[in-house]
């Protein structure tokens, strides 16, 4: 059997870290937030401890929720899966369409090597077994944005199977404890994306844009191992980070490069799994979590009211916060015509991959793909990066998550570390609390910040050398934000923020403060622990934050005991 011709293409550059939507981190359990017809709070979902589950009352059934995801990731490639058309987000409609993408008779698919390599790399990173032989199939359905009347996918023998995805959830007091969970990966298949239907409500017409038709997708099918929206959203975020670290997908959910179908069912523990519904096309982690939790509760209420769950596809109405049955082509999941639905793709021979041991002698490296070579090129994965950060800098696990969760933040942090003598923990606290706080307040990305890593490093050096107090450092940081181009040292000298080095002068200030506040001095002498802090605060105020609190304390204690 001959391997299909491979069309070479350069790798897309996409090394940015994911911008993670953390708003569902504190997502509530499936038992809350239900808004449809059923009565609220009558039944209970057997859930992971991280979720707020209501306690079951005597005589009531417990429900277990089951969630399985199908995740579609657009492959980062310059051209489409089977044609040479370019891939660009937001290009003018129908400007990136080849004859093959428009299904003109006589056109044939030519497999894009880059897409195959991306699938193998993703499979290896997700601990999958890579099938050395995989097959392409046609999946038939009729819809205006699918000109061929079928999608080329891998139904019978996909490129990668039996993997796993580990993801971590933060639990406990202040989310300090990190628990790692694993979801099994059933398969990863290569397939084509469809075109887009653009509905023009004004003129009551639907227009078709085929720019997306034929773009390479990786469908990652997860086993039904999860049990709530929070878990699903966290697993998807981890996958997003992995794809971005690999460079196999930009995985930007807002741009539709990562879309999730959530399959949901409920059952009584110990009994067979329930009938699933499928909520299609979720493109935000927050909506994914909300849709799943809503759907779990809807199903429980339906069943408790004596109704049946239909094996149907639904969509999430994010404005109303509920799922509704779909009315279009996806609405019917009635595969009575299963045999007609799929057939082998006659124009694509089996896809054959090799490892170093099985590589035919004298094979043209442009025409074969060596799995071992790809394995060697696997970059560091997010879980490894986090582990390294914890080991290298002694930072807390949740801080390692936070550093990876914002695009460009890890790089920023590492550049600051390179240029400062301040402790890594100090740098972490400044980057995560102060720097990130400023960015969020102003709705800016890391690369839009007027404060560069070198500038922050210089500021932290001033703090480390005790040239300024931490309160003054915060003032300088605010000023840096306003006056781009100024250095921390300039601001410090302009505003006279240097710490007082003249100990005698400081002694005089401490003495004056004590004289002016005899009651506080009395309280301190009687052993009131708060009173000394009050005195320190007063001295700091008088010195406009220019005195080192530790030195003030030493002087005060000396004067109090004399
Ligand atoms: N009882 C169940 N409850 C929840 N999820 C389930 C259940 N049974 C299967 N699943 C999940 O449903 C998904 C099935 O995906 P798969 O791609 O195999 O089939 P499909 O949804 O029928 O096909 P299509 O790709 O056309 O949507 C998997 O993610 C799986 O984990
Ligand atoms: Mg599927
Ligand atoms: Mg499905």
Automatic annotation (TrEMBL):
One of its GO terms (biological process) is mitochondrial translation. Keywords: ATP-binding, Ligase, Mitochondrion, Nucleotide-binding, Protein biosynthesis, Transit peptide. It is found in: Mitochondrion. GO terms for molecular function: ATP binding; glutaminyl-tRNA synthase (glutamine-hydrolyzing) activity. It catalyses: L-glutamyl-tRNA(Gln) + L-glutamine + ATP + H2O = L-glutaminyl-tRNA(Gln) + L-glutamate + ADP + phosphate + H(+); L-aspartyl-tRNA(Asn) + L-glutamine + ATP + H2O = L-asparaginyl-tRNA(Asn) + L-glutamate + ADP + phosphate + 2 H(+). Its EC number is 6.3.5.-. PROSITE patterns: GATB. It comes from the Eukaryota. It is an enzyme of class 6 (ligase). GO terms for cellular component: glutamyl-tRNA(Gln) amidotransferase complex; mitochondrion. It holds the Pfam family GatB_N. Residues 411-560 form the Asn/Gln amidotransferase domain. Gene3D superfamilies: 1.10.10.410. Allows the formation of correctly charged Gln-tRNA(Gln) through the transamidation of misacylated Glu-tRNA(Gln) in the mitochondria. The reaction takes place in the presence of glutamine and ATP through an activated gamma-phospho-Glu-tRNA(Gln). Subunit of the heterotrimeric GatCAB amidotransferase (AdT) complex, composed of A (QRSL1), B (GATB) and C (GATC) subunits. Belongs to the GatB/GatE family. GatB subfamily. This is Glutamyl-tRNA(Gln) amidotransferase subunit B, mitochondrial.
